[in-house]
Design brief:
Rossmann fold; 379 residues; Glycerate kinase, domain 2; alpha/beta; transferase; 19% strand
Length: 379
């Protein structure tokens, strides 16, 4: 029996590889001779770098870069086993979790550090990039990233703009003579599970600005600044991005990636699945096991278990998901190719206990799934 194990990480407790190993350990108690294939997964958010370097035999490379407000932070990127594919989580340099709640400043937060990680990966020889854009603290339309890559964003008086989305209201032109020439020979995939436009009622500022510290007045200010930014991009480069689906991802970095880096937007789980060869592994599998920290109604919106189930449906393979817990709306996953869902936590406990016991809980849950499967085969 061939079993494919393709889970996401459990936030704050287990990496995707650790989850997969715990599931395998539980299943081996019942099916010791099965053929197990572990493929750590992610959806473009936290854990994407680790999942892809684990799957490809790559390495994690740390670099000190500018944080969202210019403070030095220890960022990182992954270089996959092929030596030419870099995986970058925007949150590692420009993330919301790098700031305390009282420090959040959507007007001035910049993606400069994300651009520094791209440049560092270019120096290491990478020419293909996978960029996860979740969890950003920024609303600058990717302007800081462009500046780190050598672009100059100029006001009407010729002065370069400071960092942050608010400054884009003063943008007059973008000067690209110093833009890193290696980018022209590079390709970019943007792991993006949202289709928000750059501006408007569903745009970056209105939908995501408040969680990044923007007041209602600042949301309007940022939306206006991004509208002006979009108008400059259209006038200077002939590209309309204001209402382009996905342009609002990562505080508008999607727009900059599309215009200046010729990026393609794809669901993060699809990008990771392709990179690890998930479809090929599932094609002749007997069972597919996946998981994430919380399985609920949000899981159907591009999360890893649904991406895995979508591929499994293509080949007619059954899928079981093991979650750290099951939440409201979990029944929706059954409409998307998942046969059963199981919670790893089997008793009342604190969050701290659940995190500390995650590996043991996942192993036991997997063992129980395997035992029920074997029992069913014997009936």
């Amino acid at each position: 029996m061939k079993i494919v194990i393709a889970p996401d990480s459990f936030k704050e407790s287990l990496s995707a590889l650790e989850v997969a190993s715990a599931i395998e350990a539980g299943f081996r108690e019942i099916y010791p001779a099965a053929d197990y294939h572990k493929l750590p997964m992610a959806d473009g958010g936290e854990g994407t770098v680790q999942a892809l370097i684990d799957a490809s035999g790559g390495q994690r490379i740390e670099r000190t870069v500018a944080g969202p407000l210019g403070q030095p932070v220890q960022g990182f990127y992954g270089l996959m086993g092929d030596g030419c594919t870099a995986v970058i989580e925007m949150a590692a340099a420009s993330g919301l979790e790098l700031l305390a709640p009282q420090q959040r400043d959507a007007l001035h937060a910049s993606t400069y550090g994300t651009g520094q990680l791209i440049r560092a990966a270019l120096d290491a020889g990478a020419r293909h990039f996978i960029l996860g854009v979740g969890g950003s603290a920024t609303n600058d339309g990717g302007a800081g990233m462009l500046q780190a890559l050598g672009a100059r964003l100029l006001a009407a008086d010729g002065q370069e703009l400071p960092g942050g989305g608010a400054a884009l209201a003063q943008l007059d032109q973008i000067e690209l003579s110093g833009f890193d020439a290696r980018l022209a020979q590079s390709s970019f995939q943007i792991a993006c599970d949202v289709d928000n436009p750059l501006v408007g009622p569903h745009g970056a500022s209105v939908i995501f600005g408040p969680q990044k510290g923007a007041t209602p007045e600042q949301v309007l200010q940022l939306d206006s600044a991004l509208r002006h930014y979009a108008a400059v991009l259209e006038r200077q480069f002939g590209q309309q991005v204001a209402h382009l689906p996905g342009a609002g991802a990562g505080g508008g970095i999607g727009a900059a990636m599309l215009v200046f880096l010729r990026g393609s937007l794809r669901p993060g789980s699809d990008i990771v699945a392709q990179a690890v060869g998930l479809a090929e592994a599932i094609a002749d599998a007997d069972l597919v096991l996946t998981g994430e920290g919380r399985v609920d109604g949000q899981t159907v919106h591009g999360k890893t278990p649904i991406g895995v189930a979508r591929l499994a449906q293509r080949y007619g393979k059954p899928v079981v998901v093991i979650g750290g817990c099951l939440g409201s709306g979990v029944e929706l996953v059954y409409q998307h190719g998942i046969a059963a869902s199981v919670a790893a936590v089997s008793r009342p406990c604190t969050v701290a206990q659940a995190l500390a016991e995650a590996q043991q809980n996942v192993r036991l849950a997997a063992r129980n799934v395997a035992a029920l499967l074997k029992l069913g085969q014997g009936l």
